[in-house]
Amino acid sequence: MTVAGFSQEAQTVAEKVEAFVRSEIIAYEKDARLTSHGASDEMVTEMRGKARRAGVLTPHILAGGRHLSQRDTSLVLRKSGLSPLGPLACNTAAPDEGNMYLIGKVASPALKERFLKPLVAGEARSAFFMTEPANEGGAGSDPSMMQTTAVRDGDHWVINGRKAFITGAVGAKVGIVMAKSDDGACMFLVELPNPAIRVERILNTIDSTMPGGHAIIAIENLRVSVAQMLGQSGEGFKYAQVRLAPARLSHCMRWHGAAARANEIATAYACTRMAFGKLLVDHEGVGFMLAENLIDLKQSQLMTEWCADVLDTGEIGTVESSMTKVAVSEALMRVADRCVQVMGGTGVSGDTVVETVFREIRAFRIYDGPTEVHKWSLAKKIKRDFLPKTAP
User: Fold this and answer.
1) Are residues 253 and 367 in the same domain?
2) Is the pLDDT score of 366 beyond 80?
3) Residue 110 falls within a domain, yes or no?
4) What share of the chain is helix, strand, coil (3-state, %, to 5)?
């Protein structure tokens, strides 16, 4: 079926991805190898092997390294998100998807061959080392507070600091480490594991589908060749902006797929479960919740596509991606919450993936900046835009 606004190429890829996720990956949602800190490496390798054979591994990056447009990517990533494990299987998951995008945009040909190639091939996972422990005054939602340092020593940089909430560090083979030099923020590509990068502990968090979990990391005298700096010294924040808007948006794409799946399950439940002499869906309170879900899902889809169109013009899309991230994360949270409510006790149990989707989307409201930080940033822009008009 032709879907207006998307290339035929993207539609073909998206159909293959959806068929694969529904037929192969949904069954893994009950796999014993899925722990509170994500899928085991064995399980990841197994799922990606199936994706490779089905022709849907890293489906948004085509032969020759060509990347689908952001609009086309939105269709493909929504389909991969129909299971919380779909992005992991198809290699469209965070943080790898955003890291691949950044390396592809900024890295030298030699660094792409060394670090990007195994990521695109689905042979490696990656981690993005930016955020730091809050109780030490480190960088969180405000990256300018970064405490990790990078000091030049001949043909190397020596990096020291601590990082927090580093997703997927355990088991990752590629790392992007942010630190500050005398010039400002910097990024470095490193091979993992590295004895100078030590996992202090894995946090127990509300979400559970990202392999490796979220770690507290100590970096002690990490020596990195000058050739492994991503771009130039002092330009790390600029490169972070390259990654930021597309990464925010890809979260919206993937979790839209998960919320849509939860709504499918809640709808099936409401249309087959009897209560007080009639189907649940025939009770106005339940039917209205499902109707509201359709509205939120459609609005989220359209806003994601609008922001994707902005990025496809070459604009950096900081404001648009902030608006979209707030609107979509809040809307999908409402969808997930209603699905739980419609299903009652079943909704809070592990009998369906609805409970998992609820937990994962709750965390999504914090990923890549909590709602309140984005609103604060937007409010600052409103003030900046207004004041020149009122100046004498």
Assistant:
1) yes
2) yes
3) no
4) 55, 15, 30
